[in-house]
C-alpha cells in the first residue's frame, strides 16, 4: 500500500506543478454547477430530477479542459 500512496503523491505533485490544472477544472465544475440552476428557475422541485445530469455534464465539460495537457509531453518529445 505504501507504493500506491507514493505513486499517488507523485502524480498529484506533477499535476499541480504543471500550472494548476486541477484547480482550473474544479473551479470550472463549481461555476457550471452554480450557474446552470440559475437558468432553470427558482423551482427546486423541477431542478431535482435533472440535478444528477447537470453534475455529470459539468464533470464531462470540466474534463475537456485537461485534454490539451494529456499529450503535451509526447508532442514536445516528438
Write a brief structural summary.
This protein is mostly helical and 78 residues long. The chain is built from 6 helices and no strands.
- Which stretches are low in confidence, meaning pLDDT under 50 for 5 or more residues running? none
- Count every beta strand, where a strand is a DSSP E run of 2 or more residues: 0
Give a short account of the largest sheet.
none
Strand proportion, as a percent range, falls in under 5%
Order of helices and strands: HHHHHH
Q: Between the first and last Cα atoms, what is the distance in angstroms?
A: 35 Å
Number of structural domains: 1
Radius of gyration: 17 Å
Count of alpha and pi helical runs: 6
Tertiary shape? elongated
Supply the helix-strand structural class: mainly alpha
Description:
- The chain is mostly helical and 78 residues long.
- The protein has one domain.
- The protein is built from 6 helices and no strands.
Write the layout of secondary structure elements.
Elements: H1 2-17, H2 21-40, H3 44-47, H4 51-64, H5 67-70, H6 72-77
Helix pairs in contact: 2-4
Amino acid at each position: 500500500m505504501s507504493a500506491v500512496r507514493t505513486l499517488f503523491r507523485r502524480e498529484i505533485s506533477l499535476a499541480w506543478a504543471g500550472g494548476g490544472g486541477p484547480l482550473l477544472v474544479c473551479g470550472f465544475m463549481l461555476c457550471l454547477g452554480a450557474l446552470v440552476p440559475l437558468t432553470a428557475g427558482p423551482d427546486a422541485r423541477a431542478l431535482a430530477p435533472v440535478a444528477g445530469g447537470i453534475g455529470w455534464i459539468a464533470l464531462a465539460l470540466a474534463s475537456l479542459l485537461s485534454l490539451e495537457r494529456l499529450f503535451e509531453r509526447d508532442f514536445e518529445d516528438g
